[in-house]
Amino acid sequence: xxxxxxxxxxxxxxxxxxxxxxxxxxxxxxxxxxxxxxxxxxxxxxxxxxxxxxxxxxxxxxxxxxxxxxxxxxxxxxxxxxxxxxxxxxxxxxxxxxxxxxxxxxxxxxxxxxxxxxxxxxxxxxxxxxxxxxxxxxxxxxxxxxxxxxxxxxxxxxxxxxxxxxxxxxxxxxxxxxxxxxxxxxxxxxxxxxxxxxxxxxxxxxxxxxxxxxxxxxxxxxxxxxxxxxxxxxxxxxxxxxxxxxxxxxxxxxxxxxxxxxxxxxxxxxxxx
Length: 273
Known about the structure:
Residues 1-6 and 23-34 have low confidence and may be disordered. With 273 residues, the chain is an all-alpha fold. It is built from 11 helices and no strands.
């Protein structure tokens, strides 16, 4: 019933937005839409050549994959390794909410100073630091665990808050490189990256557990499986951030050239007008 009620509310909200904004479309946009644009095959070909878009998507793929590996075994890790699932889950939930809100508060200022990809790279650095603190200190106490989670969650909020911005920035490179731009198709990459990351992380976590012979129905896991739980909740997440950070660094190199690319795009349009 809760899901049904939520769905009804969302339908009503979208309907209100649709009818309330009818007629507010800019004239320029209507004229542009009436013109014949590039075909879908041409757009897909252009997107395949947009390496910045691909790198921006990979930022979230690796980040989501690491987070999914952690989510798959978090409760089992808290139960079998730490022995206090309620307190650790409470800390995790509270930190997630509070620190994520803080990250979004400072996001605007950080993007002004560091750029979108630079802020994402900073988020990856925090994510690596937080999870490596937990890995090195082995979550030896609630304090150590809390410090690592707070630092890591702050990084997560920065990566999540900038992924859409990085994807949109990649369209400037794509238009400069190929002369074709499709914001709608580019944004579909955000949902695609999340789905790929979830599938990759979930499958990898399950595959590793199968290799170690873990079966929840058999009761308490072996020490080897407990070590796997620990690594999936700390080290694997940090590795995901490392891979995301590499992609963010590469995107940042192109992001710095966006003003020059945009100027060249405008000059081309002026010549063909």
